[in-house]
Amino acid sequence: MRLKMKFLRGVGVLAAVVMVAGIAPASAQTNGMDRRADRRDDRAAARSAKQACKAGDEKSRAECRQVKREVKQVGRNDEGGTADAVPAAKPAQ
Hints:
Elements (H helix, E strand, L loop, with lengths): L1 H22 L7 H26 L4 H18 L15
Helix pairs in contact: 2-3
């Protein structure tokens, strides 16, 4: 009887370990989710840059908007995609 209880307890512990191991990876499930998280991070960085610019009082509202745009553009180009990147200048022939 004791051997049976030890066996069942061991099976229960093993099942719990397997369940916890299956839950542990909490990363994004697809590439699209990763890109979405990156865009959210870029927007948050742009917002904080604009707030910092406005708090400085040395720039106008339009200049702070431009700072925000520049931060967002850097975020777009850092992902490695070339679709939004500025094309390189062609050498003169």
